[in-house]
């Protein structure tokens, strides 16, 4: 629900030239593996319809832990991913309990939630707590169940059909509770977590201020240590704080002596803490959003969370997990909107037929289902990778790092999920025609509620800057082989050594996924070479690169999901995902390739432009696919299932 981390970009970009001078790839890195593959494959790469480009790649090939951003250089489909087909019985049971709670307790109180009747949302949160639905992320020793992140996201998805409640719950279990889970001292955890796990106490996260939203580190809230060192005096105000109307505990960010940005645990009952009136909002009207006012608030020194001056780490990493939760949570609203639109389309007759029989309506249902499939694949894949890291974590620092590792994926999920939900909700309104515009039908609310997701947890503009910014920054630190990979891809493309596309449908999809990545890496290299240290100022260029990286992650995840479904899915799921590969990948590939060419035209001139266009043209590949026919198959599956078919 909160702001963002602009400075990451600046830090990354100003040091950029250093990368170009100092980069060296580590032995055994993904980059060196890529290079070996390239050498092995070079002989095969002449033909456009070569056989399987990755004959030895199996899903179990990669034994080392996945790395954030590595989808860009690991071979598509070479790593087994987490997906709904692999949920355990226990995870499904959690999801069922959360879904039942949503249907029995939340839906019947919708009008009361939306009217913000006093006490309704906090009472529902407490009730969810009694059922154990708030303790998923809290470690066992502090009264929780310490379940996996996949379980946590699955539960979040079930709650997300009513935006107001989902946001309130997410603010409590996510950005409200997790800072203590990952950064609290044993004493802070023992003091607060058992009550937060049961809903006995409710939490909020207070970062944003009136004059510092996206630029979160420009906060003016101040903290001053008392002469005896026993407490800090906090002054300032925090804007748009979710749950502020009833939260018992706030994670507040303030600068000690106006300089050292630090997190504090502030109890509501402390003298000097108050909240402003509830905001009147476009959507999620039932959630509480108020200003938090801190007027000479005495916070015990032991309530400093994490290290003094390191509040930015807590603030931003908490946002990473918030973005993941948000991305997965958008699935709840999207699936509901698709289900409602499908049922309506089957029921509503015009011109003597159900509108579900019209091609243009079926096309909408197919597109909605495709975005949901991709969002789901991205979300659970990312969460599964975090769980893999968490399984090896030995302490809280490792756990926090496991989440930070996937900050690029978290930003992509946030962008993709929020924009997918907007698209699905908007198309659902269109399927309902005039009735979609009437509040009596749920899709109007879903559309209103969806709008905020593009704004909080870092606006989508800020998240678009974070995607390349983080990759560049980590490459510069030697953590990622990005520069080595872009250099290699650029040289190979210029020489016409490009990944082949051919074989079975799945192999073609993998080949195209590789070409999409190569194309994206190629233009990324061109941008770095063109702008060097000033690339941070070229936001439009970074925006195009971020969108293409997102496309690569989407295609790559769909290819990996289809492998999981082929092994574990039902026949319906296999047919559905097979159609999805054909319906989704060609248009996205076309977008990746053509926007890459246009980006080169925007950035370069003369001989440099001609050489780059020539090199990138080696990656061109027309896919003679029947996209429309595949979309029809998807629409058939949606109509037969009365909604999202998986
Ligand atoms: C309903 C609601 C609930 C919220 N809940 C919480 C909460 O619980 N806790 C909390 O701390 N905050 C919360 N927020 C605040 C929210 O995170 C911020 O509103 C958000 O981060 C954007 O900040 P801003 O509104 O100040 O917009 P601004 O930062 O002023 O941005 C305005 C526009 O400029 C763009 N922009 C800004 N900087 C750049 C840049 N460098 N480059 C390109 N474009 C840029 C933005 O993308 C945006 O389009 C909530 C907000 C709302 C509306």
Provide a descriptive summary of the structure in words:
This protein is α+β, with helices and mostly antiparallel strands and 646 residues long. The chain folds into four domains: 85-202, Butyryl-Coa Dehydrogenase, subunit A, domain 1 (Orthogonal Bundle), CATH 1.10.540.10; 205-311, Butyryl-CoA Dehydrogenase, subunit A, domain 2; 316-461, Butyryl-CoA Dehydrogenase, subunit A, domain 3 (Up-down Bundle), CATH 1.20.140.10; 480-646, Butyryl-CoA Dehydrogenase, subunit A, domain 3 (Up-down Bundle). The chain has 22 helices and ten strands. The chain has helices at 7-14, 16-22, 30-41, 89-106, 110-114, 120-130, 149-159, 163-176, 178-183, 186-198, 311-347, 359-391, 396-405, 407-432, 442-450, 460-476, 482-494, 505-531, 539-568, 571-603, 606-617, 627-641; strands spanning 203-206, 222-225, 231-242, 249-256, 260-267, 273-275, 289-300, 304-305, 349-350, 353-354. Helix 11 runs parallel beside helix 14, helix 14 runs antiparallel to helix 15 (442-450) and helix 18 (505-531) packs antiparallel against helix 19. The longest helix is centred in the middle third of the chain and has 37 residues, at 311-347. The chain starts with 6 loop residues before the first helix and ends in a 5-residue tail after the last helix. The relative contact order is 0.13. The structure holds flavin-adenine dinucleotide. Flavin-adenine dinucleotide binds at residues 1-4, 6, 171, 205-208, 213-214, 240-242, 281, 289, 452, 455-456, 459, 461-462, 539.
């Amino acid at each position: 629900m909160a702001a963002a981390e602009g400075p990451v970009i600046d830090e990354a970009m100003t040091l950029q030239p250093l990368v170009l001078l100092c980069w060296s790839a580590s032995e055994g890195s993904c980059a060196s593996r890529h290079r070996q593959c390239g050498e092995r494959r070079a002989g095969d790469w002449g033909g456009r319809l070569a056989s399987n480009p990755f004959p030895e790649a199996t899903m179990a090939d990669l034994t080392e832990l996945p790395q954030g951003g590595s989808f860009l250089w690991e071979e598509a489909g070479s790593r087994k991913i987490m997906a709904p087909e692999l949920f355990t019985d226990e995870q499904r049971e959690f999801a069922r309990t959360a879904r039942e709670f949503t249907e029995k307790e939340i839906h019947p109180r919708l009008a009361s939630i939306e009217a913000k009747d006093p006490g309704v949302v906090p009472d529902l949160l407490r009730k969810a707590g009694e059922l154990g639905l708030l303790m998923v992320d809290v470690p066992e020793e502090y009264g929780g169940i310490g379940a996996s992140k996949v379980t946590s996201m699955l539960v979040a998805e079930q709650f997300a059909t009513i935006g107001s409640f989902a946001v309130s719950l997410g603010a409590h279990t996510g950005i409200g509770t997790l800072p203590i889970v990952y950064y609290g001292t044993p004493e802070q955890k023992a003091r607060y977590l058992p009550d937060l796990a049961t809903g006995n106490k409710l939490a909020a996260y207070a970062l944003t201020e009136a004059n510092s939203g996206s630029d979160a580190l420009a906060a003016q809230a101040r903290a001053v240590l008392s002469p005896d060192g026993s407490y800090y005096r906090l002054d300032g105000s925090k804007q748009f704080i979710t749950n502020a109307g009833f939260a018992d505990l706030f994670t507040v960010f303030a600068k000690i002596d106006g300089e050292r940005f630090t997190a504090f645990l502030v109890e509501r009952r402390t003298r000097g803490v108050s909240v402003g009136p509830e905001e009147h909002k476009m959507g999620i009207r039932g959630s509480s959003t108020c200003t938090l006012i801190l007027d000479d608030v005495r916070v015990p020194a032991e309530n400093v969370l994490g290290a003094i001056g390191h509040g930015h780490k807590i603030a931003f990493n908490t946002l990473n997990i918030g973005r993941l939760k948000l991305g997965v949570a958008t699935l709840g609203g999207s699936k509901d909107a698709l289900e409602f639109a499908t049922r309506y389309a089957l029921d509503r007759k015009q011109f003597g037929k159900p509108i579900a029989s019209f091609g243009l309506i079926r096309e909408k249902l197919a597109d909605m289902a495709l975005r949901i499939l991709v969002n789901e694949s991205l979300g659970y894949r990312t969460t599964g990778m975090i769980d893999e890291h968490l399984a090896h974590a030995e302490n809280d620092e490792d756990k926090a790092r496991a989440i930070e590792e996937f900050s690029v994926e978290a930003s992509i999920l946030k962008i993709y999920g929020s924009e997918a939900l907007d698209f699905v909700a908007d198309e659902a309104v269109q399927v309902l025609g005039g009735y979609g515009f009437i509040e009596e039908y749920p899709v109007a609310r879903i559309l209103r509620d969806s709008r905020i997701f593009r704004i909080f947890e870092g606006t989508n503009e800020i998240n678009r800057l974070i995607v390349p910014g983080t990759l560049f920054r980590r490459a510069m630190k030697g953590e990622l082989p990005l520069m080595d990979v872009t250099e290699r891809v650029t040289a190979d493309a210029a020489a016409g050594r490009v990944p082949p596309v051919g074989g079975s449908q799945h192999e073609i999809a993998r080949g195209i996924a590789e070409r999409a990545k190569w194309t994206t890496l190629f233009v990324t290299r061109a941008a770095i070479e063109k702008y060097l240290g000033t690339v941070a100022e070229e936001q439009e260029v970074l925006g195009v690169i971020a969108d293409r990286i997102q496309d690569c992650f989407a295609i790559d995840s769909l290819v990996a999901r289809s492998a999981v479904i082929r092994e574990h899915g039902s026949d319906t799921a296999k047919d559905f995902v097979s159609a999805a590969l054909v319906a989704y990948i060609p248009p996205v590939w076309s977008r990746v390739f053509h926007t890459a060419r246009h980006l080169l035209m925007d950035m370069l001139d003369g001989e440099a432009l001609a050489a780059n266009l020539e090199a990138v043209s080696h990656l061109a590949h027309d896919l003679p696919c029947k996209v429309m026919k595949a979309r029809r198959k998807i629409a058939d599956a949606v109509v037969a299932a009365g909604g999202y078919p998986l």
